[in-house]
Amino acid sequence: MNIRNAGHSGRFITFEGVEGAGKSTRCRRLTECLENGGFPVVHTREPGGPGVSERIRSILLDPELKVAPLTELMLYLASRASNVDLVIRPALEKGVNVVCERFSDATFAYQIGGRGLPEAPVRNADRLATGGLVPDLVIILDLDPELGFRRLQKQGRERDRIEQEEIGFHRRVRSKYLQLAGEESRRYLVVDASGEPELQDSIIRDRVMALITDIGGEER
């Protein structure tokens, strides 16, 4: 079931990208923009959201833990299923727009592209976790992973388990993201995350406002 023909009036917008691309900041800026414009909006994240998903997040990102690829996939999907059931769907059904930091495309990029898990079973498992829910718009903040890690280094914090992966892993993730965008370009917006933050926010705002107000937006 696709959200665009499921009778929901809220719009579902997700942010994706490699580590250090600025997803949290861009999500926050867009949420503030929508709130200031009088548009109802909920901001959530993955892994995370409701309490059980936040606990799963602590496991997934713990740099002290060794997590096998299949276990990792299942944990991400468990977190997503809870977020969809408890946060995302209820908001959309009430006509509230949802801005989510990472969603299914992160699984396709990290677990299929990065880890090399087989595509069809992963997509089927993700569909089960989401109940067929897909974003109206996927915003990919595209960035060279090496630049992303230089940004993280400036923050001076310890890298989490995913951030500690070798650079080749993160290059594969970026490549998969771009492949996904190329396969279904109408539902994706690729933004150069190395550009000026104000320009990024402007590009994102224009596309999202067109979507929400149905000006030049995709037919539902």
What does this structure look like?
The relative contact order is 0.20. The protein has helices spanning 23-36, 51-60, 69-93, 104-114, 119-130, 145-155, 167-183, 197-212; strands at 12-17, 41-45, 97-101, 137-142, 188-192. The longest helix is centred in the middle third of the chain and has 25 residues, at 69-93. It is globular, with a radius of gyration of 16 Å. The protein starts with 11 loop residues before the first strand and ends in an 8-residue tail after the last helix. 53% of the residues lie in helices and 12% in strands. It has 220 residues and is an alpha/beta fold. It is built from 8 helices and 5 strands. It has one domain: Rossmann fold, CATH 3.40.50. Strands 2-3-1-4-5 form a 5-stranded parallel β-sheet, sandwiched between helices. Helix 2 (51-60) packs antiparallel against helix 3.
Q: How would the blueprint of this fold be written?
A:
Blueprint: E1 12-17, H1 23-36, E2 41-45, H2 51-60, H3 69-93, E3 97-101, H4 104-114, H5 119-130, E4 137-142, H6 145-155, H7 167-183, E5 188-192, H8 197-212
Parallel strand pairs: 1-3, 1-4, 2-3, 4-5
Helix pairs in contact: 1-8, 2-3, 3-5, 4-5, 4-7
Summarize the structure.
By secondary structure, this protein is of the alpha/beta class. Helices cover 53% and strands 12% of the residues.
In CATH terms, what is the fold-level topology? Answer: Rossmann fold
Give the N-to-C terminal Cα separation: 13 Å
| Overall morphology | globular
**CA-atom Rg in angstroms:** 16 Å
Instruction: Give the integer mean of the pLDDT values.
Output: 93
Number of domains: 1
Query: Helix amount, in percent?
Result: 40-55%
Strand elements, count: 5
Q: How large is the count of helical segments?
A: 8
CATH architecture: 3-Layer(aba) Sandwich
Strand content: 5-15%
In this structure, how is the largest beta sheet organized?
A: 5 strands, parallel
The CATH H-level superfamily is P-loop containing nucleotide triphosphate hydrolases
In CATH's first tier, which class applies? Alpha Beta
